[in-house]
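Long-time lurker. I teach an intro course on protein structure, and each term I like to show students one example going from raw sequence to a predicted 3D structure in token notation. This year I'd like something fresh instead of my usual example. Would anyone be willing to generate the tokens for the chain below so I can use it in lecture? Attribution to the forum is fine with me.
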Amino acid sequence: MEKLIFEIDGEHMFMFIGAMTLVVLLFIVLVVVISNLKIKTYRDVFENIQADSQEKSYEITTLQSELETVKIKNAQYEQELEQFSQTKDKLTNTEETLVSLRNRHIELEKLESQTKVKFENIHSMYEKLLKEYKDIKENFELLSEKNTKLRINNARLLIKLEREESLSPSVNKYSTNNKKES
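-- Reply from a regular --
Happy to contribute to a lecture. Here you go:
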């Protein structure tokens, strides 16, 4: 090899071609090294991006599952809110009904009070009328009894009067005869 280097040293053209070849070779090596470095850098970047992509993909998957969980919870909360709203409406209606019933109850109590007063008045009038009826009935019975006695008495007097009248014409004849004779 020394011989080859010595021969090449002697010739400038070979030297120049050798130097050019060396420069081209160094340039190719430099390009290969730079390319290798770029490839390594791009590979590292790609691996980092791929790792980031996997991490982000995992995060996206996690976030999507959390989003689904939140959506489910949101749907449950909306349903509970709807039930609460319905319960609130029922409560409002019940309160309105209760107020209405209380007012009706107050009106009915007033009506009951008035009816009690009327009933007591009517009852006292009934008691008075019943007492008057009993008094009138007693008076009627007494008057009926008295009337019966008076009728019996009148009937007796009529019978007596009729007897006397029937006896009276004969007495009248006798008295007229006595008057004629005198």
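Some talking points for your students: Helices lie at 2-10, 12-181. The chain has two helices and no strands.
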